[in-house]
Amino acid sequence: MLKVSGIHVYYGQVHALRGISLTVPEGRIVSLLGSNGAGKSTTLKMISRLIQPRQGEIEYLGESILKAPSHQIVRAGIVHCPENRRVFPQLTVEENLLIGAFARKDRSEKTNLEMVLTYFPRLKERMKQKAGTLSGGEQQMLAIGRSLMGKPKLLLLDEPSLGLAPILVKEIFGIIRKINQGGCSILLVEQNAHMALSISDYAYVLENGRIALEGPASELRNNDEVRRLYLGEQGG
Question: How many CB atoms lie within 10 A of CB 11?
Answer without folding.
Answer: 10
